[in-house]
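Why does this matter for the project? Reviewers at the last site visit asked to see concrete outputs rather than summary tables. In response, this paragraph embeds two records directly. Each consists of the residue sequence and, immediately after it, the corresponding structure tokens. Nothing has been edited or filtered.
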Amino acid sequence: MNLEKVKKSLESAGEEIASTQTLESLPSKFYDSFILQGLRIDRIEPNRLLCTLTVPPRLLNGGAFLHGGATASLIDLVGSAAFFTAGAQTKGSPLEISVAYLDAAFANEEIEIEAKVLRAGRSVGVATVELRKKNGGKIIAQARYTKYLGASSKL
């Protein structure tokens, strides 16, 4: 095992594509916008959200398909919004996200993201989130999402 090769591989993957100063000047909600830009809400009802996204090239990995981290971010962001449809009054914090990656989505492919709230208690909520190909319904990823919904501190 060549540890130096592992180190160089990880460090080179983090090479600057923009200056640190430029990146540090981005607004705090930049990441959410980066992930969600182009998302459309197709259906919204109590305990359920159904969205469509045409996979943008910016969310692809080195293999030219939807990056696993982008998938997890979509699960977090859409799953969080689903809790508001169940009456949650706080943004909360993720406690656990378990994702099964089952297929790939490619650039310009339309996908559906469906979040269903299984339970929204006073302090903890549980939802399922599924990403699937809009054409044919093949599942890309399935997730179980647990989130802390307790009241935010008023300090």
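We now turn to the second protein, recorded in exactly the same manner.
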Amino acid sequence: MPTYPLPSRRLVLILLLFFLAVSKASASRPGFLFTRTRGRCTPQYWSSRREAWPRMVPQTSTVSNVFGSIIFERYRSGLTLVESTARNDDENAFGRLLKQGSTALLNSYARKGFKYSAWEVKTLFIQALVSEEAAARQAKLFFDANEACN
């Protein structure tokens, strides 16, 4: 029977540290690849329909009814708020603006102390439609407010 040399202490220590680091990293992440649950103020949360929507904007409300007819230049006419929060076109600045702006509007109605009032969300949203740069900038601001919300 062949004999194998024992591993050095240094190698054992390195392996131990590696497995310790991997176990700590995996403990801080969810176990599923496509986990959608995050905060109560995110687009994913609102599109999941886990909570009753604010009465001011029912799920069947269209984006054009909520933000005004100027929306027709960028988005289709029958697009609903629930569809806008479930969108998956984050590479497009106007798509991000719609997703985060619709979420910010819902949060402004449903969450006390949200950073923006409903009137501010609508105004900032319409102002951001002038260019891709403005849309991207405002989408980021809405994203930050939505993520900071409780």
